[in-house]
Amino acid sequence: MPQGRGQLSLEERTVSSVQPAAPSSLRILVVDDDPNIRLTLSMCLEDDGHEVVAHGTIDEALAEASRRAFDLVFLDVRLGVQNGLDFIGRLLTRSPWARIVVITAYASIATAVRAMKEGATDYLAKPFTPAQVQTVTQRVAERRRLEWKIQALQAALGDDPEAEFPTNNAQMQRAIDMARQAADSRSTILIEGELGTGKGRLARAICAWSGRRDGPYAVVSCDTTSAEALEAEIFGSVSRDGNSATTEVPGKLALCEGGTLVLEQIGQSPPSLTQKMLLLLRDKEYERQNDFKLRKTDVRIIAATSFPLQQAVDRKRFSPDLLLALEVVKVQVPALRQRPEDIPLLARRYLAYFARENHRPILDFTGDAMHALRQHKWPGNVRELRNVIERAVLACNEAEISLKHLPPDLLSGGMGSWTIGDLVPLETIESMHIRGVLAAAGSIRGAAGVLGVHENTLSRWLKKNGNGGSVNAAAATDNISEGIVDDQPAT
């Protein structure tokens, strides 16, 4: 094969095949109007384990780059009457992650400078050797590996800065270990923990750790004013019209067959559903609303509650039989104030996440700011901490978050400076507790249910005292705008 402008000889290509392979496989596009160059360069790269596509015209190359993404492009400068440098930008538009290596038999400083300005990563003068090609591809492969590593770390963080439940607390670690051990069983799991401790996230993790990870997953909140609506949502319903036509509506149990159903706020489930719940938990059977046909189910039940069910049983507000059926496996998630060593750990993970999401170059907290975070009692637990850090990141245009970026509740006079029994006005305790519950619940309706007041009562309190950053302002405004009615007891 005659050697033209920089093509690789058969001997050189044979030598290249015994050289160390590139660190990882790349998707490579070769653009050169010389068929010998395309062939020998492609064979050299393929011998190193790369996936190669070669084209002789820029139009073909652009079309190929529109169909698939490439990691590396070898681009000749002279493509007939066209200049390859003119198309670097269009190639990068189609494959933003690609690295462009310009190859040319007419090397010059001016050409190299222009190639770099247009967006090229490297410059290779013809004739080049297999060793030079390997050096270039290895550099690109190493760069891509670093990019993939960063992407993997960001994906692991994703929408959950608490991925894999980072903790330095023994009690929290025991809870996680218990959840992992029970994940693959068929047993019902009861998760107890204050509002905002991450019970829902743990329930989803249990499903992910189990053999049902690929099955359907659904969540039902038992905090409702309508027992009939809840019954229909969970168990389904059957209705018949005057012509004896039957309409069946499957509930979440039917939809989750072979998967997992999470019953949130199980402690607030209506007493009228106790027997149906017992039948489900004990015998894996259920009846649809308005139907007496027993149906078998293969659904893993995970229940969650924000207050101890045993206390509700002691006060005769919850069935002791239902509690026994629920707590086959009980996972107790500690409150954030019970694991203070996790506050800096979680705060910095939230900081890294929200700084990245909002493009803020914030590196850490000042000593005073971290001290305030440590001293706060966090009635809204990790959810409140997350909200506080997100708000601080948005307010901060400096390298560190300081006291001025934190809510006033965390500073002097806030819950961080007192404990139960201290000489603190009742009004202060009430205010801090309400704000903490609002921060954790994320909505007025949810907070009102926990506090045991009507949501309009809470709306009036917010209007009078200001939301103080404890709950999303838009949510508060939406609820307040609905109008004020007479107080009603929460159900």
Structural write-up:
The chain is of the alpha/beta class and 491 residues long. The chain has 4 domains: 10-156, Rossmann fold, CATH 3.40.50.2300; 170-334, Rossmann fold, CATH 3.40.50; 338-411, Helicase, Ruva Protein, domain 3, CATH 1.10.8.60; 425-491, no CATH class. The chain has 20 helices and 18 strands. The strands form 6 sheets. The chain has a 5-stranded parallel β-sheet with strand order 2-1-3-6-7, with helices on both faces. The protein has a 5-stranded parallel β-sheet with strand order 9-12-15-8-16, sandwiched between helices. A two-stranded antiparallel ribbon has the order 4-5. Helix 18 (444-451) packs across helix 19. The chain is elongated, with a radius of gyration of 32 Å.
Feature tags:
alpha/beta, 4 domains, 491 residues, 14% strand, 5-stranded parallel sheet, 20 helices, Rossmann fold, disordered C terminus, disordered N terminus, single chain, 45% helix, elongated, Helicase, Ruva Protein, domain 3
Radius of gyration: 32 Å
Order of the strands making up the biggest sheet: 2-1-3-6-7
Looking at CATH, the homologous superfamily of the largest domain is P-loop containing nucleotide triphosphate hydrolases
CATH topology of the largest domain: Rossmann fold
Mean pLDDT figure: 80
Low-confidence stretches: 1-23, 150-155, 412-417, 467-491
Percent range for β-strand residues: 5-15%
Described by the principal axes of the CA atoms, the overall outline is elongated
Class by helix and strand content? alpha/beta
Question: What's the number of helices?
Answer: 20
Helix share, percent: 40-55%
The CATH level-2 architecture of the largest domain is identified as: 3-Layer(aba) Sandwich
Distance from N terminus to C terminus (CA atoms, Å) equals 87 Å
Q: What is the top-level CATH class of the largest domain?
A: Alpha Beta
Number of domains in the coordinates? 4
Number of strands: 18
Described by strand count, sense and barrel closure, the largest sheet is:
5 strands, parallel
